[in-house]
Design a protein that fits this description.
With 250 residues, the chain is of the alpha/beta class. It has a domain of 156 residues: Rossmann fold (3-Layer(aba) Sandwich). 36% of the residues lie in helices and 24% in strands. The strands form two sheets. The chain has a six-stranded mixed sheet, with helices on both faces. A four-stranded antiparallel sheet has the order 2-1-4-5, covered by helices on one side. The two termini are 32 Å apart. The chain binds adenosine-5'-diphosphate and magnesium ion. Magnesium ion (MG) binds next to helix 1.
């Protein structure tokens, strides 16, 4: 479904993504892990066409989309749930959801899908006509995911959905992502600093460091890596608690 070949992204002198190649098959959850500044968001922006790659190719759903405008990619089913959620706080919850369907003309189907989203998220339904600012961080993330679903994603890309959430709310967000994949067959590209939790639900993962892929494979393979454990999971430095603590990169 997605084949990224040696993608390069630069911001002037900053070389954010350096020859990154990744693949994703329909129905998979693929995680892209890495510390702050590793190039994860830049990679997603490149896939969506929000920044223009200085090299490499992006193939999605059988087409080379490397130079297509973002609007065409979104209509083609590539949807980003951005870092920091980007909810419009002054609009109502309902209006924020509608924004996810801005490019659609099938208004009846949109209304039916919004009803499904309200079934799935009763917290949103109860306050649909309130300003989005009444929502907690976790509920805002649910709203951002609901808005993304209204874009009818063939591939949903999530940029750090657990950022800033308590462990309990993070668990709810990860459980939702897992259900979307298991029950709806949703293909998901999940960018996370929360390695442990992302690897629990991913089929495969890539680790990005300073713009390069330094490790890839099945979650077990990545979790077994000692360097990664020492750097990111707080283990292997004589403090091997062996617990399944939720730890982020920062
Ligand atoms: N708009 C921008 N202009 C210049 N440099 C940027 C811009 N956005 C990101 N960068 C730089 O690119 C690198 C990768 O950033 P980013 O993709 O946001 O990483 P991540 O999402 O993994 O934290 C960092 O060095 C960051 O400072
Ligand atoms: Mg980022």
């Amino acid at each position: 479904m997605l084949t990224v070949h040696e993608l390069e992204i630069r911001y002037g002198r900053v070389h954010a993504v350096r020859g990154v190649s990744i693949t994703l098959t329909a129905g998979e959850v693929v995680a892209v892990l890495g510390a702050n500044g590793a190039g994860k968001s830049s990679l997603l922006r490149g896939l969506l066409g929000l920044v223009h790659p200085s090299g490499g190719t992006v193939r999605f759903d059988g087409c080379d989309i490397t130079h297509r405008p973002t609007s065409m990619r979104v209509r083609g089913g590539l949807v980003l749930v951005p870092e920091g959620r980007r909810i419009v706080m002054t609009l109502t919850i309902h209006e924020n959801l509608l924004m996810g369907a801005f490019h659609r003309r099938d208004h009846r189907a949109v209304a039916a899908e919004i009803a499904e989203i309200y079934d799935r998220f009763p917290h949103l339904a109860a306050r649909r006509h309130h300003a989005a600012s009444v929502l907690s961080g976790g509920e805002q993330q649910m709203l951002a995911i609901g808005r993304g679903l209204l874009g009818r994603p063939k591939l949903m890309m999530l940029d750090e959905p657990s950022l800033g959430l308590s462990p309990k709310l993070s668990n709810e967000v990860f459980a939702l992502i897992h259900r979307l994949n298991q029950e709806n067959g949703q293909s998901i590209l999940l960018v996370e600093q929360n390695t442990q939790r992302a690897l629990e639900l991913a089929d495969r993962a890539y680790v990005l460091e300073l713009g390069r892929v330094t490790m890839e494979g099945a979650p077990d393979h990545i979790l077994a890596d000692r360097a990664l454990q020492a750097a990111y999971l707080g283990r292997g430095r004589g403090d091997d608690r062996g617990d399944a603590r939720t730890t982020s990169f920062n």
